[in-house]
Amino acid sequence: YEATSPPLAGISAEGGAAALPQAALSFDGGATLSGVPCGFMGLGASAPGFHMGADLEAFLADVVADAAAGMHVCVVGPKGAGKTALARQLLGYLGYGGEAFYLFADMGSRDLWQRRVTDAHGNTRWADTALTKAAKVGDFAVLDGVHRLDPAVLGSVQRLAQDGEADLPDGTRLVPYAHYQELQAQGADLSGVAAIHPSFRMLALAEPPTKKTKWLTPDSASLFSFHVLPPCDAADVAAILAPSGERAVRPLVELFERFEKQKRLRKLESQKADSADTSETLAALEDLQHALSPRLLKRAARKLAVSGGDGDGDLRAFFEDALLLKFAPAHKRELFNEVAFGEGAGSPAPSGAELAMVPIAVDEHEVSAGDLRVARRQAASPHLVPAPEFYDNATQSRVLRALLEDYAAGEKNVLLIGNQGVGKNKIADRFLQMLGAEREYMQLHRDTTVNALLVTPTLRDGRIAYEKSPLVRSIEVGRFIIIDEADKAPLECVVALRALLEDEELVLEDGTRIMNAERAEQHEAAREKRDAFDQSTAALGFEAHGAGAQPKRIVTIHPDFRCIVLANRPGYPFHGNDFYRECGDIFSVYTIDNPSKASEMQLARRFASTVDEGVLEKLVDAFSDLRSLYEAGDITYPFSTREVVNVAVHLNAYPEDGVVAAIENVLAFDAFDMELRKALSRIFQKHSIPYPAASEAALAHTEIDLAELREQAPLEASEMIADDASGDPKRT
């Protein structure tokens, strides 16, 4: 990294009005910079656990120098590279508390400044956003995710960034403090005018522009002083991962170095060949390397330290889930395995491969899986501990073992992602049952709001009252929260959830702050300084930190709080948001697939103990073939284990209906898609199940005698089906 400023030597407070705090910066070589606007907190603080290499020290010196010169700064770097950690380091060094503002793609220009809120009496009013609040009180506004905004929306801060002025939706005009003083001296009416504090700065955090996110335009380029975060080298990675121990660090550093080497080689090949295929391979390799962020590598190191594994198999399994390689194009999967594990590594074993059962024992005090021992929780409310109807099988036992490793490693947030009906809820509930952990549950949908994440309306004595949501209850008490259908939530909710789970801090519209215990302690410790600062700012015409809000309260995140998020895979046919793309990197991710054939047979036998095993085998094989059709793109719905179990349960309860009627009960909706029905019929008949193709008369809503259909020789659960020489199914 080529620095433009000398290294920082220190920072000290200067005298002056308490409302206009200033500092002096000193640099190596004896240079000093006085009169630097700063925050009212202590100067020179360092974020805990922040690794500061030589490149990052030089980078921070450049950012501090620009902020000291009155510039607004934008830090650009890939996801998980440490932008938020660097922001905390910068704020602590300059004595700011910071107002975090998490941006999302659907925001409009007005949403950057103010939003409409409803008070307890049903009245609506304007409320300042974090950006406006920071401008009024003299704080750093951290604009997290400016790359998500439309360039026209981002451009709405141009007047604020360049001229120090802005007009708010409620009619208030923000003006520079010097101009505000002039208006005061002239005796002007200042009822609709507010001063911008001289200490106010904007710090934007963004990912590099891509073909899909062309947020960096000539207009937006003039808003900030841009700084590109220097990439980590192998030494930085080793230092970041060092707390996990040498056994976990070594294989990850080696993997990081292999990607660096391959990127250099592919770059040379691309320059020589200059072909589309070579360029595409290089782009895929760079995408994969960016995904191997410090955040992800730290999670991998913690996982390896707990599991005790350090071989290629452990790393392969981790990254296959963490990077969603099961859902990635084949060439990307093969490229990762080739670079990470050497030539000829190929793709991992298919999801349906037979696996050995992982024995997991649960007693009163602990859960044990091999040499892993995890203490069980003592539930204060036993009725909140789930008790699912769960049958052990080889595939899902491996996921449960991995979840126990995550819990032992201290992972707080887990994402289970996969198609509908593969058992995500069952796995989560069984995991909590083994731990004896209390569970709260929330299901998101397209109309979920940020407010709905935090409060739940209820009717009490004929009046609407607002209670804590399951999420807030879990945070306060220290329970597990299961957030289901996360891919259905609007992006605004996804971004708020990311802020809460990743940064462990969220400011509500009433001024309440949710934060972890360490930050809550710091916030309370700074209360006297903040009150003194507010008193002095009010005397000069600035707004206080508590203005316009109800009395603030701190909600401390309980150390036992954990979150399990369930989401469908991105894309058709689920039509949700791409939850993984937006915030998958902050979770320990598991791609949940359908169980292997042996595991699915275990489940079917447990749910349908009276059904002939031959019939169950034919059902399992048929639905396995249907999934293959889905993966090949021939059908659009990924039939899952849920359909197999539902058919088996129907046969077990009503054996006189026969297999065809049981299948119809589950797949009746598909009768109106002729092409799909024909494909289903071909697959089932291949396995000797006489499932009829839909007729044109049925699709034309011709009246059909259901009694006549029932007389068409239904297959009993105890009967076998075979093909004769002509290939037509017959009863035997």
Please describe the topology of this protein.
Layout: E1 8-14, E2 22-27, E3 32-37, H1 54-68, E4 73-76, H2 83-94, E5 99-102, E6 114-118, E7 124-128, H3 130-137, E8 140-144, H4 151-154, H5 158-163, E9 166-167, E10 173-176, H6 177-185, E11 193-196, E12 201-206, E13 225-228, H7 234-241, H8 246-273, H9 276-291, H10 294-307, H11 312-322, H12 330-341, E14 361-362, E15 366-369, E16 372-375, H13 394-409, E17 413-418, H14 424-435, E18 439-443, H15 450-454, E19 455-460, E20 463-468, H16 470-477, E21 480-484, H17 491-503, E22 505-507, E23 513-516, H18 517-525, H19 527-539, E24 554-557, E25 562-567, H20 579-583, E26 588-592, H21 597-607, H22 613-631, H23 641-653, H24 658-667, H25 674-686, H26 696-699, H27 706-710, E27 721-723, E28 729-731
Parallel strand pairs: 4-12, 4-13, 5-8, 8-12, 10-11, 17-25, 17-26, 18-21, 21-25, 23-24
Antiparallel strand pairs: 1-2, 2-3, 6-7, 9-10, 14-15, 15-16, 19-20, 22-23, 27-28
Continuous helix count: 27
Distance between the termini: 77 Å
The residue fraction in helices comes out at 40-55%
Taking all Cα atoms into account, the compactness measure Rg is: 30 Å
Percent range for β-strand residues? 15-25%
**What is the structural class?**
alpha/beta
Strand count: 28
Please give the order of strands in the largest beta sheet.
5-8-12-4-13
What best-fitting shape do the alpha-carbon axes yield?
globular
User: If you average the pLDDT, what whole number results?
Assistant: 83
Unreliable sequence segments: 547-551, 695-699, 717-727
Biggest β-sheet, characterized? 5 strands, parallel
